[in-house]
Structure formats: C-alpha cells, structure tokens
Write a structure and sequence with these properties.
alpha/beta, Rossmann fold, seven-stranded mixed sheet, 6 helices, globular
Length: 177
C-alpha cells in the first residue's frame, strides 16, 4: 500500500514515469482519467496517452468524483490517476459560486482518503502550475492557487513524491526501491 505523487511542468515526463512505475510494480492496473475530450486537440492527446499504456490496462473516465472511482477499483493492484490539475479545472467549471472553493479541497481530501485506503499502489499525476508568471485574470489565479494547494495536500500524504524536469524524474520525498 503506497501513494506516489508525480508533479512537473507540461510535457515533462510525468505520465511516462507513472507508466514505467506501474509496469515495474507488475500488477493489474486501472487508469483513472480526469480529462474530457472537449475538442479535437484534446481527443488526439487522450488517444496518444492511451497508446502509451499497455492494452490490458483498463481505463475509468471520471472527471469529477475520483474518490468513488478509486473505491470502485476492486481487484486492481495499481491505480494511476491522470491528472489532478484537470480535476481541479473540472471542479472549478462545475462550481456555480467561485467564492466557495472549500468543497474542492474536500474532494481532494476524499481522493487522498480513498487512495490511502486502497489495498495497492496509487500513482497520482499533477501539473506544477505555480512556477510561471502571475496570471492576469482572477479565474486563472484562482485555478493556480487551488491547484497548488491540492498538490500540497496530496504531496503531504504521499509516501513518495517525484518532480519531473525535461523527462528526468527526481525523487524529492521518500526512498527509492
């Protein structure tokens, strides 16, 4: 039973690392995808990610209630969740009152609780969005701040934390295998 958190910038190698780790643990894998294919570019991106994964892995598409998806993954040894930043975006878009963001953190805490209860390994992927310029509009700043706090919650509970830079993963919390 282990919770692994992988963060880094866009196209930094996070998903590749998650797939490599899951293969190394050698068990039955399910992939929880939070992305929604809203346009052709996103459909293509999702398709490319699916091609990187072994065909025997199952995929659960769950853009909102990831904790329930984890709880329903009975019979699996490894869960990969890709990704928290898209989950935060989905939750922000669903939220009618932008001043009420505490429920988003409750959803993240529920996810962590389910991940820690899972009888296997959970690998969670998220983008690091706080290292760039300060966004010019309130929604973008809210997204950055909420995603950053969500990452802190997950990293704080994780057994291992990796950050990826240019395809190179660095273990920053926990010990290697």
């Amino acid at each position: 039973m282990s919770l692994i958190f992988i963060t880094g910038g866009a196209r930094s190698g996070k998903s590749t690392l998650a797939v490599e780790l899951a293969k190394k643990y050698n068990g039955k894998v399910t992939f929880i995808a939070t992305a929604q294919a809203g346009d052709d570019e996103m459909k293509k991106r999702i398709s490319l990610h699916k091609q990187e994964r072994p065909q025997e892995w199952t995929t659960i598409e769950e853009p909102i209630d990831v904790a329930s998806a984890i709880d329903s993954a009975v019979g699996y040894d490894i869960i990969i969740i890709d990704c928290i930043t898209l989950l935060v975006s989905n939750l922000l878009c669903k939220n009618e009152n932008m001043d009420e963001t505490q429920w988003i953190f409750e959803k993240i805490n529920d996810l962590v609780y389910s991940a820690k209860r899972f009888d296997g390994t959970v690998i969670i992927i998220s983008n690091e969005v706080g290292m760039g310029i300060v966004p010019e509009n309130k929604l973008a700043r809210d997204f950055r701040d909420i995603a950053g706090k969500a990452n802190q919650i997950i990293a704080g509970s994780a057994d291992k934390v990796y950050v990826c830079f240019s395809g190179i993963p660095l273990l920053i919390k926990g010990t290697g295998d």
